[in-house]
Amino acid sequence: MLKVENLEVAYGGIQALRGITFEVPQGKIVTLIGANGAGKSTTLRSMVGLVKAKSGRISFNGADITNQPTHKTIAAGIATVPEGRRVFANMTVLENLKIGAYLRADTAEIKKDEEWVYELFPRLKERSWQPAGTLSGGEQQMLAVGRALMSRPKMVMMDEPSLGLAPLIVQDIFAMIRKINEMGVTILLVEQNANMALKTADYGYVLETGKITLEGSGQELAMDEDIRAAYLGKRAAKKGLVH
Fold this sequence. Notes:
By secondary structure, the protein is an alpha/beta fold. It is built from 11 helices and 10 strands. It has a domain at 1-77 and 190-243: 3-Layer(aba) Sandwich (Rossmann fold). Helix 3 (93-100) packs parallel to helix 6 (137-149).
């Protein structure tokens, strides 16, 4: 579905991505893991034209979308759940959802999708007329995901969906990611929480200082000694366990 080939991105004199190549097959969950500053968010931003590629190619369902305007990429079927959720704080939950469907004109179907999102996240329905800025962090993350789904995407890219959330809420967020994927939505997941990301993903790539240094199934990467030591903590590395 999504193919990235030899992608390079530079900010001024800083090389943020150094010729990375990866793909996201249809119907799968693929994760990019790595330390802060590795280039994960830059990768997602380049997918939707928010940062320009210096070289390389990004294709989606066979079409070249490299450096394509953001609205065209969204119209092609890619939606983003940004880092930090980025809900419109002074607008209601319902208004935030409707913004997710701003490129659509099928009013009756939009209404159906609102109800679908409310079925996925009943708490959003209870708070539909509440300003988004008054929601808890977990509820705002649900809203950010619901807003992305309102565009009827073929693929959703999620940037650090667990960031700043309590452990119990993190469990809920990853359960939600699996549920959305089971409904047929392809997911590209960027996460610092390598433990949860690798448990959830079908396939993963490790990004370090702008380069992909390792790849494999989620299970394979979770069992890799170097990954355990670098991302899953000393306890996991010593005991041979992923907690």
